[in-house]
Structure formats: C-alpha cells, structure tokens
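Bit of a strange request maybe. I'm writing a small parser for structure token strings and I need a real example to test against, not something I typed by hand. Could someone generate the tokens for this chain?
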Amino acid sequence: MTCKQLGGPCEKEFHANTFEEMIEKSKKHGMEMFQKGDKEHIRVMNEMKENMKSQSSEDMQNWMKTKKEMFLALPENS
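Reply from user aminoacidic:
Good idea to test on real output. This should exercise your parser:
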C-alpha cells in the first residue's frame, strides 16, 4: 500500500505481511517525515488528528476496517 492509500500525501510504498505491520510502517514513515519538517505530511497529520477528535470510535473502527479490507484485497494477499 502507499502512504496516500493510508491517508497520507505521498506515493511511498509500504510492503508488509500483515495489516498491523503495514500500519506500523506507515506510522514510522509519518514520524520520519514529521522530523524532517515535511509540510504536506505535517498538514495531513494535523487534519487526521482533528478528525480523530471529532469522530466517534465507531467511525475510526470503520475507517480501519476499510483500510484493512483494501490491504487484504491486494494481489499479494489473495
């Protein structure tokens, strides 16, 4: 999956055996971009943080479920 597919702003690709591993790689990438001061990643992270505050836990679970379904549908996981 790409950073963009997981809600980020770029096309960096992540490869993982499990969805949980994919999320960890995405988080690590986000932190690296934050430390580098990447404005687009920081903007998206701030938007996500605000969305998380305003959404219910059910909304967040649905978002994660949708992303996991996308991961499981990838050809490598079929």
